[in-house]
Amino acid sequence: MTKYWIYTLIAGLLEIVWVSGFKYAHDFWTWAGTALTLLLSFFLIMECLKKLPVGTLYAVFTGIGTAGTVVTEMVFFHEPVRIGKLILIAILLAGVLGLKALSGEKQGGEA
Amino acid sequence: MGWLFVLLAGSCEVIGVIGLNKVSQKKNIKNFLLMEAGFLSSFALLSLAMQTLSMGTAYAVWTGIGTVGSIVMGMLFFGESRDRKRLFFISLVVFATIGLKVIS
């Protein structure tokens, strides 16, 4: 069980890497790395789906992805820190997490 | 253009999710192609959107549209529940997306 939560965490961190690649990849090797991390993160999530509750799994994964990209762009890519934007992204994330949690508790398949 | 691309990327993700659901019901080439086409075009459009939008904004809006879109499709076409809690969370995502557009 714990092993699969560690996989989820790794998949979330890889997600931040490939999303960054979508914006900043610029040559063959950076695009190859982007594709590789994307495939690996999806593979890990597919593995976790077999063992973990789907609503919670997606919530953790999306949460890491959203918060992670925002922090990464500010820390590593010198994006200006704007409070209004951070608050709105937090509201958006709350909406997404609420929806994922509800669909997880009801039927656990979709979204 | 960035906002148009991210809206289209979210819509393509919804198509990918529909394909994924169909693949899980019935594994055939048609369903598999629908899933692949949806996700691949979604990724390509997200990447285009990020050339002008900030990475965090584009990713959050993309995830938001994908999630809300899949759930609204479920409500409209697959008879899923429309309870108030779900509508409330959908309105949060819509509000935040519009807000991000306004301040960008």
From TrEMBL, chain A:
Q: Give membrane topology per the record.
A: Multi-pass membrane protein
Q: Keywords in UniProt for this one? A: Cell membrane, Membrane, Transmembrane, Transmembrane helix
Mention one GO molecular function.
Answer: transmembrane transporter activity
Compartment(s) of residence: Cell membrane
Locate the transmembrane regions by residue number.
Answer: 5-22, 28-45, 57-77, 83-102
Cited Pfam families: Multi_Drug_Res (PF00893)
Protein name according to UniProt: Small multidrug resistance protein
Q: Which species does the entry assign this protein to?
A: Fictibacillus macauensis ZFHKF-1
UniProtKB/TrEMBL annotation, chain B:
The listed locations are: Cell membrane
Q: Taking the first listed entry, what is the main subcellular location of this protein, grouped into a coarse class?
A: membrane
Locate the transmembrane regions by residue number: 32-53, 59-79, 86-103
InterPro entries hit by this protein: EmrE-like, Small_drug/metabolite_transptr, Small_multidrug_res
Question: Single GO molecular-function term?
Answer: transmembrane transporter activity
Report the membrane topology from the UniProt record: Multi-pass membrane protein
What is an example of a Pfam family matching this protein?
A: Multi_Drug_Res
| Sequence similarity | Belongs to the drug/metabolite transporter (DMT) superfamily. Small multidrug resistance (SMR) (TC 2.A.7.1) family.
PANTHER family of this UniProt entry?
A: GUANIDINIUM EXPORTER (PTHR30561:SF0), SMR FAMILY PROTON-DEPENDENT DRUG EFFLUX TRANSPORTER SUGE (PTHR30561)
**Protein name (database record):** Small multidrug resistance protein
Species: Fictibacillus macauensis ZFHKF-1
